[in-house]
Amino acid sequence: MDLGRDELAADTSLVGRSLCEAYADRADAFLTELFEAASDRIGGISLVALGGYGRRELSLQSDLDVLLLHDGYKEIGPVADAIWYPVWDQGVKLGHAVRTVNEALELAGDDIDSATAMLQARHIAGDRALTATLSEEVAELWRAKASRFLPQLADRVQERHARAGEVAFLLEPDLKEGRGGLRDVQSLQWACRAREMLWQGDDEALQDAYDVLLAARVELHRRTGRMGDVLVLEEQDGVAGALGVADADDLMRGLAEAARIISFRSDDTWRRVGMTLRRGIGRFSRRDRALAPGAVLRDGEVHLLGEVDTSDPVLPLRTAALAAGEDVPVHRAVLTLLEGCPPLPTPWPDEARDQLVHLLGSGRPAISHLESLDQHGLFTKVLPEWEAVRSKPQRNAYHTFTVDRHLCEAAANAAELAGRVSRPDLLVVGTWLHDIGKGFPGDHTVVGMEIVADIGARMGFDPDDVAVLVAMVEHHLLLPDVATRRDLDDPEVIQWVADSVGSTLLLELLHALTEADSQATGPAAWGPWKQELVDVLVRRVEHVLEGGAVHDVTETFPSEEQRALVTSGQRVVRGVGDTLTVVDADRPGLFSRVTGTLALHGLDVLDANIVTFDGRALEVITVQSSFGPTFAWDKVLRDLERALAGRLALRARLAERAATYRRSAPTTVHSEPKVEFHLDASSRATVVEVHAPDSVGVLHRITAAIAEFDLDIVRARVQTLLDEVVDSFYLEAAGGGKVPEDVLPELRRAILHAVDAPR
Fold first, then answer.
1. Does the reported pTM lie above 0.85?
2. Is the separation of the CB atoms in 705 and 690 below 8 Å?
């Protein structure tokens, strides 16, 4: 007989818990046969499954955690060997121990991992009474030492969350260790063995959510043939198919829903566990502090007193806003009571809009309260459109959060910036709704504008305010896109943005929205460079909107000092701070040589101003280092001198560097590389925008492709968004003016070939 893992792996009718239990049954039978052969007619011995095996949650790659329990039998060693070695021969990792009950209890009393493993002990074979004794005494020990074990368990929950992140929001979630993962449910089960703390109905909700995550983890193990709890991107489609889910998006949305159910209940339970540990069982303070008529703060939670009017549709928002203002939770019984409130009518009562603004305006506390309302089915009564974005994944590494959580995070960030705007109410509501269109078919901005027009009117905003909210959705990407992809010294760019925005009110709202949205998107979406560009753009547009001349705020390039460098006739290669200045004889491929040399030294181009006159070129380039904030220019400048003189094998060296520093497997869903021409973005140049996967020397290859056409790059803006680049170039024909349109198809072909070239 064997464990039959290959047979089980091939049986695709077994998924999730059914596969776990089938394997556990096989393991039980296998171990029982070994035990009976090894312990023939010996009493006082039992074989016990621990941990996940004890729960019968045995995936095909799980360890077998087994305890050989005895009552002092002196020849127990040969019995253990006769069981362990055949298991090892199966290629299975075995967690094994041989102990008496007293030895096991002594270990459990000192080590929380041993204690929790034994809490889930399950008899396999031998003396049932011995196993029962262990189970009973471990449970009693756990309850007796709850005041020591529960704080340790709570600390471990927090440590895991900090280390593994959120299952609901990560692109590649840790299904076991992350916040909202399997281990959270197991930890709650262990905690409840000491103190029954789960809210009524949580058991069933937690079990259903647990089984969703368990099924994905089991299938991940079956597909990869190895242990591992991180659902990596390349396995998501396969796991979805094996579980009968339509696609990876549906799989990840279901996992996010399950994780949110778990994390909400886990947070609530551990908060109450902490309260009991601080104050002692049965010693809750009953001293109430009045917060509003009929609402009090009791034991750190909001309670409603007397007969609550559940016919009031504003009550959920009113209660949540009150609690958010105090930064305390609403008691679970109150949330359950609020489930009886009806949806908000159309149009909303004025108080509903005011309470929503108050809730969103509370900042970070609003996030947990919006989640509480959502977990109790209350939020779609406020905003039915929320269902479309609820737990909707954004499968790229640029976005940290699901769509709904991103909107809540952005609104919380906006609340912190409310002092910068004259209409904080429009800021928090507009930010909260700016991506609502992502839940519906079509372009999310266009669809979002239609939806927000309806929502704004339903909320009771006047027509002018609704128009502002719609414009916030329409232009929510305007400032960051222009700031990072266009020439801010071009008067046409500043005038176009001013004409698009139309008012200082909308400009200040978009300014705050841009920062709030970017910070809520992910670490690659906001930084000092981007913030400075956006700030410059806003200042210049504001000047125009207030009646100033556009030429007053755009800078002149080159400066007199820079012109003097060009007319000197000398080659200049100078690095100061984060700025490289190069002056040399103008020729095709000059900029490509510079960018290639920078790439050799791990320097990424952020911005480049380029001008040519009198047969010479001036390039002023802003860079950032892949290795830290400081720049060691000496070696860079030496190599750059060699490259400009045609004495550096750039292509070969970049290929060697690419092989040495090859990136790890991408953690994003790449769209196809694309090249876009913006013919109306400038009256003097053709603007080309390139989207492509990042790689060593990609900017060098793109600019080399452009050089093949004898085109002048007069401005370049380069963004690296994790492992993708968005590069914009202002191109002029050799004799000046825009690139002839009949050249553009071939230019696109050359650039696409360059970004797809072997890396």
1. yes
2. no
